Amino acid sequence: MRAAVLAVVALPALAPVAVAQTTQTVKAVDEKTGPVSFANVASVRLGSDPQHGGSLITETQRSPLTPGQSKLSTDRVAVPKNDGERSTFGGNWEIDLGKFADATKSPYPAGIASRDHNVVAALQATTVPTAVAETNYALRDTTRGKSRPVDDTMLVLENARSAVDCSAPNKATGTTTLTRLWVRGEDDNLKQVAMPAGSASLSVKNLRMGAPGDVPQANPTNTLSDLVVSRVSSFDQLVKQDGWRGGDVTAQAGWRVDVTTHVHDASNVALQDVHTSLVLGGVSCSIPKNFVAVSGNSGNGADATQPPVPTEVPAGYLGTAAAAPAQGDYRLPLGLGLLVAGLVFGGLSIGLGRRRAARSRGE
User: Fold this and answer.
1) 312: which residues sit within 8 A by CB, 6+ positions away?
2) Which residues, 6 or more positions from 240, have their beta carbon under 8 angstroms from its beta carbon?
3) Half-sphere exposure of 111 (CA within 13 A, CB side)
4) Helices within the chain (DSSP H only)
């Protein structure tokens, strides 16, 4: 699944910003070293080799420079969202993460209600940075071609929630929780499984799941995947743009899904292993080592005392050319992650694609 990688640079322009009026001047935190938080609903790293692999990074919320919040729009209901993201991801997988108006097209097992996601990066009135990402996730292999979306679902995280709070240098915390976890195992049935606590991971082998993109001569019957679900434990595990920075003290959280697809041909000869990493609900907060919160009340991720400022940053793309692919290597092409360079006092988004997309799931 190797394709040529394009280098595209189109610096974004800022849309008009509506700034909330206050009765007193609020001092902005330092853009480069001050308290900051980030929140991302879902992003993907393709391939295990950074030189020839790539990433698909969705809109990332960044906390504003004055108290307030940046929240992901509810029109993001899936990855990929459009043809550009589908081309980068490979065309065979879909991550569903939003609300569905038609229950018959739900990718979730019975009993899991349709819901909007809540993905927020905030700067509290105390200048404490917080972030939260919560929703239901369903990873589907659409090449299965079943009549109901849920029959293509391979993994479900119900009420997955990641949150961070950097109240002080000695009090920077990250939490990652969920209600239930479902996996379609070797018997091809979608079943609830227990997620180990703490730093332990869940490993499931021999899922009847193909690669995220097409591999020449691959045989679906003979191709199996191994899946590992774990909690994000380090800042480097987040799939992020260069603009997503850390600090002297950083806390992070999120769910990590690593899939290794063992691709075989019709004669069951191994062709290659395809590695794909998903980070669902990746969040982080950072503060300087000498940070002291100002007096006031602090929330926990979504709460900020000032209402969100309506802000929109149009799409822009920043890509880097990778070395030429090796002969016979079919890994996926580099995804073009959006890097928004401007900072404004309202909510700020960094992401891939801002075009509106239809929310129907009948694709």
Assistant:
1) 15, 349, 354
2) 38, 40, 43, 57, 60, 282
3) 9
4) 83-89
Which residue, 241, 246, 244, is CA-closest to 317?
241
Residue 237, phi then psi, degrees to nearest 5: -75, -15
Count Cβ atoms below 10 Å from residue 209 Cβ, excluding itself.
Answer: 26
Residue with tokens 């991720």: 301
Q: What is the pLDDT of residue 239?
A: 94
> Quick one: tokens of 58?
């969705």
- Distance, in Å, from the CA atom of 316 to the CA atom of 15, rounded to the nearest integer, reads 12
pLDDT at 41: 97
Find the distance separating the first CA and the last CA of the chain, reported in whole Å: 23
The answer to whether 9 and 102 have CB atoms below 8 angstroms apart is no
Helix (H) or strand (E) run with residue 78 in it: strand 78-79
* Calpha distance 270→94 (Å, rounded): 25
Residues in contact with 351: Cβ distance below 8 Å, sequence separation at least 6, in sequence order: 57, 58, 59, 60, 315, 338, 340
- Per-residue pLDDT band for 42 (boundaries 50, 70, 90) equals very high
At residue 142, φ and ψ (nearest 5 deg) are -70, -15
**pTM to 2 decimal places:** 0.79
- ∠ CA 154-160-166, nearest 5°, is 140
State how far the Cα of 154 lies from the Cα of 121, in Å rounded to an integer: 29
Q: What is the pLDDT of residues 203-254, one digit of tens each?
A: 999 999 999 999 999 999 999 999 999 999 999 999 998 899 999 999 999 9
pLDDT tens for each residue of 153-186? 999 999 999 999 999 999 999 999 999 999 998 8
Give the list of residues 6+ apart from residue 192 with CB closer than 8 angstroms, or none: 180, 181, 182
